[in-house]
Specification:
The complex is a heterodimer of chains A (288) and B (331).
Chain A (H helix, E strand, L loop, with lengths): L2 H4 L4 H35 L3 H4 L13 H6 L9 H30 L6 H13 L6 H10 L6 H24 L4 H9 L4 H30 L2 H6 L7 H11 L4 H21 L1 H8 L6
Chain B lengths: L15 H4 L8 H16 L3 H21 L2 E2 L9 E2 L3 H8 L1 H32 L6 H13 L2 H13 L5 H12 L10 H4 L1 H26 L3 H9 L4 H29 L3 H7 L8 H11 L3 H34 L2
Antiparallel strand pairs in B: 1-2
Helix pairs in contact in B: 3-15, 4-15, 5-10, 5-12, 6-10, 7-10, 7-13, 10-12, 10-13, 11-12, 12-15, 14-15
The chains are: A mainly alpha (288), B mainly alpha (331).
Chain lengths: 288, 331
């Protein structure tokens, strides 16, 4: 803050402004501190392997795409495309399935509520509180007997069940924002269910539904435990690939950072896109 | 189900107009049939999701309970049979399992509490206007959006590594500034393995806590704060008597959701320490019993114990959420 803007302002006000800008500075420092590891990951991914593994760190070293070329399989013969494609299949397909199942359910719980709707809602939530790992063994055995192991569609089904409860909660809260008066007016005007849904419910609820889809996508993309146990060579997803990537080939820091960056990109993009609705979704719609 | 939610069932939900039965105009029998049909019409959209969830998540738990009473190791397929409570006895007398329970509690409590406090501080900082607030907010959210496995690898190799990680590299750099060629170079992951996992998780979860608490702060009625200021209340008084009580529900919610996710953490433990040096938590231990030791019976018993513990936490948790929901309903 320059002196000219401060002149003629009461001392108390001046002090308040000074603490204000100090707090702003503190916020900036915290932001940078939290962002630093990610920045370091991206910077290292553009360094050569020798520059990546120096002590003290070589911040200003020349940039190269070597790490990314290595990651995309140049010379090593290990292509990241199958795992990336598997992650994409699992995330997109399960998100679509979540939408197909959750939209009607949320409709039944908010716009035309069934009796005891809050009990149903709590049942959905309670499934989220049971550790997934405790149901993993039977799923593994069933998959083994039905020859579904190492099959990406098994993950699609499991990820759907993992995200469905959150999606129902989230969408219920978005659908609940549709004004009752508008629904009543539509019903007085004789609008049928399809018209009501398309003309009144959809415009209000669509941004929320899109955010729900993005969050479901993020959770599926991130999942490791199920993918690690239930997939292998054919259906391995990106997180599984990432863990195997390090152990099987020794450590190449720049390459690992390039891999981590590439695999995080879809989630970062989805997360920034859903930023505003992210909290509301993750807090199960309880925080507006 | 928590009893608190019970009173919400019969309350008007603000949509009374759409659910008022029209029985007055019809003879009673027709009305009954019609109401039943209408009831099913309301329930029908719910059924696919419910059936799917019961089949995919609840039935495996039933199977887990059944398997937990059998003697079943995949490496010895001939020696299979009814084990009664042997697996449970083994679980409760196993020091590794006890250590896993302790590790899980310690890990969860530390990560949730520290990230809650840090998140609160950051939310308070971000609640005021300052230049570049949007940029800072985005920078703070980023750790939460990095794929968990990638984040764990980043901490393990690029930051903690004793010979070329950023932390020790920075120490070398600082010591050099002061002309010393002998900086401390601790091996973070072997010196304090659990803390190494915790710091990485706190880094990922603080942004989440911050986002929830920031939403809470911004829903705070501004006029009450203004009135208190005019009456001469100090910033601390405003925080202690206005902000904190208002934030209570948001703090509870953030702690609850953080707990749900951190208790189940597998990625960080698996990637950073592979459960070594006393960092194996319950999910990792079950994974090991089942996937590496192939002891299906024991793994299932461990799973059942975890579920029972989770149910205890969940009952409390659901009550918290139920009070949030009731507020929304009676709004």
């Amino acid at each position: 803050m320059s002196a000219s803007t401060v002149r003629g302002v009461a001392p108390a006000e001046r002090r308040r402004r000074r603490t204000g800008s100090l707090l702003g500075l503190a916020a900036w420092l915290c932001g940078i501190a939290f962002f630093l590891p990610v920045a370091w990951m991206v910077l290292t991914s553009f360094h050569s392997e020798t520059d990546a593994a120096t002590n003290p760190p070589s911040v200003g070293a020349g940039l190269t795409l070597h790490g990314y070329r290595e990651f995309f399989g140049a010379g090593t013969g290990v292509s990241p495309w199958p795992p990336l494609l598997n992650s994409l299949t699992a995330s997109v397909a399960s998100t679509l399935l979540v939408l197909v199942l959750a939209v009607p359910a949320a409709y039944a719980l908010s716009i035309k509520p069934v009796r005891k709707w809050s009990d149903v809602l709590f049942f959905f939530l309670s499934t989220k509180m049971l550790p997934l790992v405790a149901g993993l063994l039977p799923v593994y055995l069933i998959a083994q007997n039905t020859r579904m192991l190492d099959n990406i569609w098994l993950l699609v089904i499991l990820y759907t069940s993992m995200n469905l409860p959150i999606a129902v909660w989230m969408m219920r809260s978005f659908l609940a924002e549709v004004p009752v008066e508008m629904l009543e007016a539509a019903s007085i005007d004789g609008a049928g269910l399809p018209t009501t849904l398309v003309r009144i419910v959809a415009p209000v609820a669509l941004p929320g539904i899109a955010a729900t889809a993005l969050i479901s996508f993020i959770f599926s993309w991130n999942e490791l435990l199920f993918a690690r146990v239930l997939t292998g060579i054919v259906a391995g997803t990106s997180p599984v690939f990432l863990t195997g990537f390090v152990t099987s080939q020794g450590l190449f820091l720049a390459k690992v950072c390039a891999a981590a960056t590439v695999i995080s990109l879809p989630v970062l993009a989805a997360g920034f896109a859903a930023q505003d609705k992210l909290v509301q979704g993750l807090s199960l719609g309880a925080v507006k | 189900m928590p009893t608190k939610s019970a009173e919400t069932h019969n309350e008007p939900d603000g949509r009374g107009g759409t659910r008022r039965p029209s029985s007055a105009e019809h003879p009673r029998r027709d009305a009954g049939t019609a109401r039943r049909a209408a009831g099913w019409a309301r329930r029908a959209p719910l059924l696919p999701a419910l059936v799917f969830l019961v089949v995919v998540t609840q039935l495996p738990f039933v199977a887990t309970v059944v398997i937990s009473f059998t003697r079943w190791n995949a490496l010895a397929p001939d020696n299979k049979g009814f084990a009664a409570f042997d697996n449970y006895k083994a679980v409760f007398t196993d020091p590794a399992m006890r250590s896993a329970i302790w590790t899980t509690v310690l890990l969860t409590v530390t990560v949730v509490l520290v990230s809650l406090v840090l998140g609160l501080g950051l939310a308070l900082l971000l609640d005021r206007e300052f230049w570049g607030r949007g940029v800072v907010r985005t920078m703070l959210i980023t750790p939460f959006l990095v794929v968990p496995v990638a984040a764990a690898l980043l901490w393990k190799h690029a930051l903690y590594n004793a010979s070329y990680g950023l932390i020790n590299g920075t120490l070398t750099w600082i010591w050099k500034l002061f002309g010393s060629a002998d900086p401390p170079q601790p091996d973070w992951m072997t010196a304090s393995p659990l803390a190494a996992v915790e710091v990485a998780l706190i880094w990922q979860w603080t942004p989440f806590m911050m986002l929830i608490l920031l939403a809470g702060l911004q829903s705070r009625p501004a006029d009450a704060v203004e009135a208190a200021r005019v009456d001469g209340a100090s910033a601390f008084d405003v925080f202690r008597y206005l902000t904190l009580p208002h934030l209570r529900r948001y703090l509870e919610l953030a702690a609850l959701l953080g707990t749900i996710y951190v208790v189940q953490n597998f990625d960080a433990v698996f990637t950073i320490t592979s459960g070594g040096l006393g960092t194996a938590n319950l999910p990792y231990t079950i994974y090991q019993t089942f996937y590496q030791a192939h002891d299906y019976g024991r793994a299932s018993a461990q799973g059942v114990v975890v579920v029972v513990c989770s149910l205890l936490v969940a009952t409390f948790a659901l009550r918290t959420v139920s009070s949030l929901l009731r507020e929304e309903v009676t709004r």
